[in-house]
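Budget justification aside, the reviewers requested a transparent look at the raw inputs and outputs of the sequence design task funded under Objective 1. We therefore reproduce one unedited record. The lines immediately below are the C-alpha cells for a 170-residue chain.
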C-alpha cells in the first residue's frame, strides 16, 4: 500500500497545449477540477498614444503546466477542459517535465519582489534612458514608485521610476 508521502512523490508537472489566447481560461477550469496549475508570466508595458499600460503575458504562449499523479488522478479529463487543446503525450501517457524545472520557474517568478529603498540611499537605474546612471532616492510613494535625483550635466534631475527597475549602487 502506498503511503501519502509516496503518493506525493509520484505527482509530476506536465505540459498542456491550450487554444489560442486561452491560457487563463484553461488555468481557471483546471484549478476548478482540483489540478495544480502554473502559467509563467512576464510583465510588459504597452504604449497607446501617451498612455502606458502594464500587463502580464504568458512566457510560453499557448502552453501551461499542470500537476497530477498519472497513477492516481483522472488526468484524461484534462483534454476535455475548456481552453485546453491537448496534453503533450509520449505514446499513451503524458510526457512529464524534468524534475525541478517548473519549481525553478515558480521560485524565480516569486523572486521578482522589489528591493525596499530608504530616502538618501544610493541607487543605479537598470532600464530606460537613464540606464546605468546612479543617483539618490528622494522619496517613496505608496504605488511602488521611487522619486530619484540624478546629477546630469551639472544639475539635479528628479524623476519617478518603479522600484523594480532600481538596484543598490555598488
Amino acid at each position: 500500500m502506498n503511503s501519502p508521502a509516496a503518493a506525493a512523490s509520484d505527482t509530476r508537472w506536465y505540459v498542456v497545449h491550450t487554444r489560442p489566447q486561452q491560457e487563463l481560461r484553461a488555468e481557471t477550469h483546471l484549478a476548478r477540477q482540483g489540478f495544480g496549475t502554473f502559467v509563467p508570466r512576464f510583465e510588459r508595458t504597452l504604449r497607446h498614444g501617451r498612455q502606458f499600460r502594464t500587463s502580464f503575458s504568458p512566457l510560453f504562449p499557448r502552453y501551461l503546466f499542470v500537476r497530477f499523479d498519472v497513477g492516481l488522478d483522472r488526468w484524461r479529463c484534462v483534454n476535455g477542459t475548456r481552453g485546453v487543446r491537448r496534453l503533450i503525450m509520449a505514446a499513451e501517457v503524458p510526457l512529464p517535465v524534468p524534475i525541478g524545472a517548473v519549481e525553478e520557474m515558480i521560485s524565480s517568478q516569486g523572486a521578482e519582489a522589489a528591493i525596499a529603498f530608504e530616502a538618501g540611499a544610493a541607487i543605479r537605474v537598470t532600464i530606460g534612458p537613464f540606464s546605468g546612471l546612479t543617483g539618490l532616492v528622494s522619496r517613496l510613494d505608496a504605488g511602488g514608485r521611487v522619486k530619484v535625483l540624478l546629477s546630469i550635466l551639472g544639475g539635479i534631475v528628479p524623476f519617478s521610476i518603479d522600484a523594480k527597475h532600481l538596484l543598490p549602487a555598488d
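The longest strand covers residues 41-48. Residues 1-8 have pLDDT under 50 and may be disordered. Computational costs for records of this kind are itemized in the attached budget.
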